[in-house]
């Protein structure tokens, strides 16, 4: 008797299930990597905006120059003066102030403004100063003014970017 050789056409149920499982794993990995890429892109955009805000504030400080930046409070413990505030376009360098910015780096009026995303504070630390009366001081020609701009994400409360520069009345 002759054997009937049958050829298998198509897939068995097991092969179909295995192929579907492999496809599902590959698709899940692909979507997870896309999600990671999109999150990383958003983080990079956020850091870039924060860096631009800090760089802009330090640029304003450099334009004002060492002699025109405000002085703060002298500490006898550190022999340094410290000022904290921000540059507000309407009022200039304002002690104790915080500047606010939207996600794209545009300055907004207040912390309750629509679209506020970042806060910015500036700290100026003066060394080699001439002590005055009480907590006052004056700058000498060799005073070093360290300006630090700190940009904070308001929703998370984390510092997104911090940048510093030094100013000297005679230039560097």
What does this molecule look like?
There is one protein chain. With 172 residues, the protein is of the alpha+beta class. The chain has one domain. The chain has one helix and eight strands. Strands 1, 2, 3, 4, 5, 6, 7 and 8 form an eight-stranded antiparallel β-sheet that branches. A hairpin with a 4-residue loop joins strand 4 and strand 5 (107-108). The chain is elongated and about 95 Å long. The mean pLDDT is 90.
Could you give the topology of this structure?
Elements: H1 13-64, E1 73-75, E2 80-88, E3 92-95, E4 99-102, E5 107-108, E6 116-131, E7 137-153, E8 159-168
Antiparallel strand pairs: 1-2, 2-3, 2-6, 4-5, 4-6, 6-7, 7-8
């Amino acid at each position: 008797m002759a054997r009937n050789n049958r050829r298998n056409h198509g897939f068995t149920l097991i092969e179909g299930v295995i192929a579907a499982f492999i496809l599902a794993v590959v698709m899940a990995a692909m979507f997870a990597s896309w999600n990671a890429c999109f999150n990383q892109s958003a983080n990079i955009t956020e850091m870039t905006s924060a860096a631009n805000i800090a760089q802009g504030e330090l640029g304003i400080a450099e334009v004002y120059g060492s002699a025109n930046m405000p002085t703060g409070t002298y500490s006898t413990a550190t022999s340094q003066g410290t000022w904290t505030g921000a540059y507000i376009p309407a009022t200039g360098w304002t002690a104790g102030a915080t500047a606010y910015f939207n996600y794209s780096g545009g300055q907004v009026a207040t912390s309750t403004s629509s679209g506020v995303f970042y806060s910015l504070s500036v700290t100026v630390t003066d060394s080699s100063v001439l002590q005055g009366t009480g907590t006052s001081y004056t700058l000498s020609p060799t005073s070093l003014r360290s300006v630090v701009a700190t940009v904070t994400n308001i929703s998370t409360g984390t510092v997104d970017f911090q940048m510093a520069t030094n100013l000297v009345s005679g230039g560097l």
